[in-house]
Specification:
Layout (H helix, E strand, L loop, with lengths): L3 E4 H8 L3 H10 L5 E2 L5 E4 H22 L4 H14 L9 H10 L1
Antiparallel strand pairs: 1-3, 2-3
Helix pairs in contact: 1-2
């Protein structure tokens, strides 16, 4: 027999999400909950652990499918892309830039 011992706030703290997210998971049925007479939503520790494992596995799969990279790498790539953009409607190659610097 399962014990319904965790409150919404406790589950939110364990999962690292807001209380509103936990309530939404409970209403959607992705996280099994029980509503007691006072209207309080309670969760069992085993269900919360199962949900956390599934959520972790799902996020790992989606990161792998997206080919996710670290934040610093993304920032470096975006900065590199911005530098590569032509300015003023035309693009000056690095060789032309060197030549222009010598001429100046």
């Amino acid at each position: 027999m399962e014990q319904w011992i965790l409150t919404t706030a406790e589950v939110a703290k364990l999962l690292g999400v807001s209380r509103h997210s936990v309530k939404r998971y409970g209403r959607a049925g992705t996280l099994i909950s029980k509503i007691v007479g006072s209207g309080q939503r309670l969760f069992s520790l085993s269900d919360v652990e199962r949900f956390a494992k599934e959520r972790l596995a799902k996020s790992a799969r989606s990161r792998k499918q997206r080919g996710a990279v670290g934040r610093k790498t993304r920032l470096r790539k975006s900065a590199r892309d911005k530098r590569a953009q032509p300015k003023g409607g035309f693009h000056v190659s690095s060789e032309d830039q060197k030549q222009n610097a010598k001429d100046a």
